[in-house]
Amino acid sequence: MDAVIKNLQSAAVKQDNKRRPTQAEAEAAVRTLLLWAGDDPDREGLLDTPERVAKAYRELFSGYSQDPADVLGRTFEEIAGYEDIVLIQDIPFFSHCEHHMVPIIGKAHVAYLPDGEKVVGLSKIARVVDIYAHRLQTQEAMTAQIANAIQESLQPRGVAVMIEAEHMCMSMRGIRKSGSMTTTTTFTGTYKTDVNEQVRFMTLVRGR
């Protein structure tokens, strides 16, 4: 019986640790950071900063409350058997590095090969990019997440994703090399097995 009670207590603690903090708790955390940085949260210019930061974070990390599968759920079937490349280039995004919580600024290029039976609205692809961008990220993970979400929801013959981005954790701090770009790619299905399709994707993106 003691073991059962201990397990229940442990589960309750874990559940409590996952509880989303209240607005007041979030604002208190911002006040603590302001004090830690060496400023006075009670001075006039910072009085409303905790509230503003909490509100901004709710927007910047809104991707946690959105499901890409819902966005990709509505497709169009009147496509006359079209099954060649659909490419959306230069999708701008802003994300945040999960290691330092500073911005990642870049653009995504996303392509897929329809199955000949359905396609998705072009804006939905951009929305999927935004959903994953509005979470704490690494560029590598975000690239794979976008590709996998499209592959799982649409079941196309293949998906290709390229992301080019500047990481402020490299530009603003540490090594401080502003302007350096990081490029990542992920391929699924035909894009993964057919080098010619990879080359075609890269040529279209680079030849713009």
Commentary on this structure:
Zn(2+) binds at residues 97, 100, 169. It holds the Pfam family GTP_cyclohydroI. It comes from Phyllobacterium brassicacearum. There is one protein chain. This protein is α+β, with helices and mostly antiparallel strands. It has 2 domains: 21-65, GTP cyclohydrolase I, N-terminal domain (GTP Cyclohydrolase I, Chain A, domain 1, Orthogonal Bundle); 75-206, GTP Cyclohydrolase I, domain 2 (2-Layer Sandwich), CATH 3.30.1130.10. It has 9 helices and 7 strands; from the N terminus they run ααααββββαβαβαβαα. The chain has helices at 2-17, 23-37, 49-60, 68-71, 122-133, 139-154, 168-171, 189-193, 195-206, and strands spanning 75-76, 86-97, 103-113, 119-120, 136-137, 158-167, 182-188. The strands form 2 sheets. Strands 5-2-3-6-7 form a 5-stranded mixed beta sheet, with helices on both faces. Strands 1-4 form a two-stranded antiparallel sheet. Helix 5 packs antiparallel against helix 6. The protein starts with a helix and ends with a helix.
Q: What are the main properties of this structure?
A:
GTP Cyclohydrolase I, Chain A, domain 1; 46% helix; five-stranded mixed beta sheet; elongated; two-stranded antiparallel sheet; GTP_CycHdrlase_I_CS; hydrolase; 2 domains; alpha+beta; zinc; GTP Cyclohydrolase I, domain 2; 208 residues
**Strand runs, count:** 7
CATH architecture of the largest domain: 2-Layer Sandwich
Helicity level, as a percent range?
Answer: 40-55%
Strand order of the largest sheet: 5-2-3-6-7
Q: Helical segment tally?
A: 9
Write down the CATH topology of the largest domain.
GTP Cyclohydrolase I, domain 2
Radius of gyration: 22 Å
**Name given to the CATH homologous superfamily of the largest domain:** GTP cyclohydrolase I, C-terminal domain/NADPH-dependent 7-cyano-7-deazaguanine reductase, N-terminal domain
Beta-strand content bin: 15-25%
Low-confidence stretches: none
Describe the biggest sheet? Answer: 5 strands, mixed
Tally of separate domains: 2
